[in-house]
C-alpha cells in the first residue's frame, strides 16, 4: 500500500501574495489576502512527493467559531487544473520533488475573517486530513464583483490603505483639524478588529447565523457601528460628555485608534474611557478600513440631534438671553460620523455608493445604539424610508431650527425659524492631500433652492412645515478677528431697522461657555440695554467684551463660547435673535525633524511650545504618536511651571518602520490649557536593500 501524504510545512509566499493583494502593510509574518482574487502557496511534503495518478486532493477552508457547510463557513473543493474566480476552488500549479504549489481562489462574496486551510488527501482508499495553517481573508475593493468595489485607484489608496488622516472640528466659521493615526496595519490590529465581530451581541447569541452573514458589508458595518460604543454590548468606547473624565482619558487627548483598540483588547473587552463623536468615528474608520471596506470620516457642522423625529429643533432662551434646556433636541457645533462605500442590494436600485454610519450612541436603531448604513443619495433626495436610520441622518443635515422665548410665567413665544442653520460645511479630508473637501452637495441641494425644499417636503410628509413672517428688525453678530484662548475679546451686535419708522428696543447680549454639543456650561458675559433707539433704515452697533477672567475657568476643551443677541421691539413686540459660536484658538505647536528620516534608523523630533496665557502653566505633558513612526510616547515638560511667554522644548526619538509619507502627531496638555494639537508630515526614505 502506498504511503500516505504528510505535510512538513507550508510556505504561504506572503511577500508575493501580499503585494498582489495590497496587504503588504500588514507585514509578512502570516498570510492576509482579499477575497475574489487568487493566491499561491507551496506545500512541503514529508515521506514522498505528490503523485497525481494515485493521490486525490481536496482543499478545505473553514472560518468562524463553529464552521459548517450549511452556513457557508466550511467549504470543501477538489484540486483542479484551472481556476474559476467565481467560487472557492484550487488549481495545481506545479510539483517539484516534495514541493507542491497550489493556487487558491475565493469568491467575491466569501465570508471575511480568520480561516483554517486543510488538505484532504486520499490514496488507495486511505484518507488523511492535513493541516496547512491559517490565513485572514478581507473585503476586496479592487475586485469588480465585490460589494465594496471602488473603481478609482487614488480613492482606494486614500480610503483603504491610508493609515493616517485629518478629522475636522471647531465651528462652521472656524474650522480646525486634528491629525489622527488610524493605524489599521499596526501589529495585532487586524486580530482585534476581527475579535470585535466575535464579541458582538449577534455573534454571542447565534454564532452560526452571525458568521453566515460575514460576506455582507451592510451587515458587517452595522455590527461595527454598534460595537465601537459600549452601550449595549462588549463594545470598545464609553462615551462621556460630562467634562468629568476622572478614571479615564479625556476624549481630546487621543491621537489615534491604535492605543484605544489595544487597550480594549488588553482589558478583555471592557470599555475604554472615554470617547466623543470624532473618537467613535475615527475608531470605526480604522476597523472598517482594516477589514477592507472603503471608509472616510465626515464632519457635519451645525449637526441636529432630532429626538422627536419631527425635523424640527426647538431652542429656548429666557428673557435675559440665556439658553434654557427645555427640549431634548440639540444642535451640535460639529458632529462626526463615517461613510463607507458599498452596494445596497437590500434596497431598491439607485442607493449604492457612500453610506452613513454613525457609531456615536445617540438614538437606538432596532433596539441598539447604532446608526446606518444610510445611503447618502437617499438623504439628498429626502427618500427617508430607506433603511437604515435615514430619517435621523436626514434631520442631522436638514432639520429646521426654531427659536423660542420662554417667559417668566412659563409661556413661550416663537421668535424665528431658520431653515438654513443645520447641516453646513460637511467636510472630509481630500484625496492625497491635507486639504479639506466640502461634500455638502452630496447630502443636500443648495440651501433655499426649490430642490432643497422639495426634498424637505418629501421627508416631512407627516409634519406641517413651519412658516415665518418677514422680519422688519434684523440683528447680526460680528467679530473683528480670530481670538486666542487666554485673551479678552469683543463681539458686536448690529441692529438693522428695515422700516421707515423709529424703533425702540431692548437689546440683551449674553455669552456662555458651552460644550461642542451645544450644552451650556456657565455665563461668562452679559449686557442689558433697556433702551436702544434706531431710526428709519438705520443700523446701530453695540458691543460686549468677554473677559478671560470670566470664561477661563469654565471653558471646555473645545474652547467654544456661545454669544446670543436678543432684541425686543416695544411697540409691536417684535422679537429677533442671533447666535454665534466663537471658537478660541489654541497656540501652535512647532515640530522640527532633525536629520533625514530613514526607515529603521532613529530620528529626532524637536517640539517647542510657547505659553500664550496671562498666567503660568503647570503639569505639562507631551503625547507623541505616529503610525509607522513610533508607538505612543508620553514626555513630561522639562519645567514644572511655564511662565507667560516662556518657550519650552522637548526632543523625542522615533524609529520609522514604514517608508513614505507619515504623520507625527503631538498633544500638549497642562492644568489650564487642554490638549493643544499639532502634527508634522514626515517623508521617510526606504532603507536601501
List keywords for this structure.
689 residues, alpha+beta, Immunoglobulin-like, Coagulation Factor XIII, Chain A, domain 2, nine-stranded mixed sheet, 39 strands, 16% helix, 42% strand
What percent strand? 35-45%
The helix count comes to 13
- CATH domain class name of the largest domain: Alpha Beta
Helicity, as a percent range: 10-25%
Number of strands: 39
**CATH fold type of the largest domain:** Coagulation Factor XIII, Chain A, domain 2
Q: What coarse outline follows from CA principal-axis ratios?
A: elongated
| Helix/strand class | alpha+beta
Structure characterization notes:
The structure is a single chain. The chain is of the alpha+beta class and 689 residues long. Helices cover 16% and strands 42% of the residues. Helix 3 crosses helix 7 (258-266) and helix 6 packs antiparallel against helix 8 (277-291). It is elongated and about 110 Å long.
Amino acid at each position: 500500500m502506498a504511503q500516505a501524504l504528510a505535510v512538513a510545512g507550508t510556505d504561504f509566499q506572503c511577500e508575493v501574495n501580499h503585494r498582489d493583494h495590497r496587504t503588504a502593510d500588514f507585514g509578512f509574518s502570516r498570510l492576509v489576502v482579499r477575497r475574489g482574487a487568487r493566491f499561491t502557496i507551496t506545500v512541503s511534503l514529508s515521506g514522498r512527493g505528490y503523485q497525481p495518478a494515485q493521490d486525490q486532493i481536496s482543499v478545505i477552508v473553514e472560518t468562524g467559531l463553529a464552521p459548517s457547510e450549511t452556513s457557508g463557513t466550511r467549504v470543501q473543493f477538489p484540486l483542479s487544473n484551472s481556476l474559476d474566480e467565481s467560487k472557492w476552488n484550487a488549481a495545481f500549479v506545479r510539483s517539484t520533488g516534495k514541493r507542491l504549489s497550489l493556487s487558491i481562489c475565493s469568491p467575491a462574496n466569501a465570508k471575511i475573517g480568520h480561516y483554517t486551510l486543510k488538505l484532504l488527501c486520499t490514496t488507495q482508499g486511505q484518507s488523511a486530513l492535513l493541516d496547512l495553517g491559517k490565513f485572514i481573508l478581507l473585503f476586496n475593493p479592487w475586485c469588480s464583483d465585490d460589494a465594496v468595489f471602488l473603481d478609482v485607484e487614488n480613492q482606494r489608496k486614500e480610503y483603504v490603505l491610508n493609515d493616517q488622516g485629518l478629522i475636522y472640528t471647531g465651528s462652521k466659521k472656524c474650522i480646525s483639524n486634528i491629525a489622527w493615526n488610524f493605524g489599521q496595519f499596526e501589529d495585532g490590529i487586524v486580530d482585534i478588529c476581527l475579535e470585535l465581530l466575535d464579541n458582538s451581541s449577534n455573534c454571542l447569541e447565534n454564532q452560526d447565523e452571525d458568521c453566515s452573514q460575514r460576506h455582507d458589508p451592510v451587515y458587517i458595518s452595522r455590527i461595527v457601528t454598534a460595537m465601537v460604543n459600549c452601550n449595549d454590548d462588549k463594545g470598545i468606547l464609553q462615551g462621556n460628555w460630562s467634562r468629568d473624565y476622572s478614571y479615564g482619558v479625556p476624549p481630546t487627548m487621543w491621537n489615534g485608534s491604535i492605543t484605544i483598540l489595544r487597550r480594549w483588547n488588553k482589558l478583555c473587552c471592557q470599555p475604554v474611557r472615554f470617547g466623543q463623536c470624532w473618537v467613535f468615528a475615527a475608531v470605526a474608520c480604522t476597523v472598517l478600513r482594516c477589514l477592507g471596506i472603503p471608509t472616510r470620516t465626515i464632519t457635519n457642522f451645525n449637526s441636529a440631534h432630532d429626538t422627536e423625529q419631527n425635523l424640527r429643533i426647538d431652542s429656548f432662551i429666557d428673557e435675559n438671553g440665556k439658553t434654557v434646556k427645555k427640549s431634548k433636541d440639540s444642535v451640535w457645533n460639529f458632529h462626526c460620523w463615517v461613510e463607507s462605500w458599498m452596494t445596497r442590494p437590500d434596497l431598491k436600485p439607485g442607493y449604492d455608493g457612500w453610506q452613513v454610519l454613525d457609531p456615536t450612541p445617540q438614538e437606538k436603531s432596532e433596539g441598539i445604539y447604532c446608526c446606518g448604513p444610510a445611503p447618502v443619495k437617499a438623504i439628498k433626495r429626502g427618500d427617508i424610508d430607506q433603511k437604515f436610520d435615514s430619517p435621523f441622518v436626514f434631520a442631522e443635515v436638514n432639520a429646521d431650527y426654531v427659536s423660542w422665548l420662554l417667559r417668566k410665567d412659563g409661556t413661550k413665544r416663537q421668535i424665528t425659524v431658520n431653515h438654513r442653520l443645520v447641516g453646513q460645511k460637511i467636510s472630509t479630508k481630500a484625496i492625497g492631500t491635507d486639504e479639506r473637501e466640502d461634500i455638502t452637495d452630496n447630502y443636500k441641494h443648495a440651501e433655499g433652492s426649490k430642490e432643497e425644499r422639495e426634498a424637505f417636503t418629501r421627508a416631512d410628509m407627516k409634519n406641517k412645515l413651519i412658516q415665518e413672517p418677514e422680519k422688519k428688525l434684523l440683528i447680526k453678530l460680528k467679530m473683528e478677528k480670530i481670538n486666542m484662548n487666554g485673551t479678552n475679546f469683543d463681539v458686536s451686535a448690529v441692529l438693522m431697522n428695515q422700516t421707515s419708522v423709529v424703533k425702540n428696543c431692548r437689546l440683551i447680549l449674553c455669552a456662555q461657555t458651552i460644550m461642542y454639543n451645544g450644552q451650556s456650561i456657565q455665563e461668562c458675559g452679559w449686557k442689558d440695554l433697556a433702551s436702544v433707539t434706531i431710526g428709519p433704515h438705520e443700523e446701530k452697533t453695540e458691543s460686549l467684551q468677554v473677559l478671560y477672567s470670566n470664561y477661563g475657568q469654565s471653558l471646555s476643551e473645545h474652547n467654544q463660547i456661545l454669544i446670543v443677541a436678543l432684541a425686543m421691539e416695544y411697540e409691536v413686540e417684535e422679537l429677533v435673535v442671533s447666535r454665534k459660536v466663537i471658537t478660541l484658538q489654541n497656540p501652535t505647536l512647532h515640530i522640527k525633524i532633525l536629520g533625514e528620516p530613514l526607515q529603521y534608523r532613529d530620528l529626532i523630533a524637536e517640539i517647542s511650545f510657547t505659553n500664550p496665557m496671562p498666567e503660568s502653566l503647570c503639569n505639562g505633558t507631551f503625547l507623541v504618536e505616529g503610525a509607522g513612526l513610533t508607538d505612543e510616547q508620553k514626555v513630561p515638560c522639562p519645567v514644572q511651571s511655564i511662565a507667560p511667554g516662556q518657550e519650552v522644548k522637548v526632543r523625542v526619538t522615533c524609529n520609522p518602520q514604514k517608508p513614505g509619507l507619515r504623520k507625527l502627531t503631538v498633544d500638549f496638555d497642562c492644568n489650564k490649557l487642554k490638549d493643544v494639537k499639532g502634527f508634522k508630515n514626515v517623508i521617510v526614505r526606504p532603507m536601501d536593500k
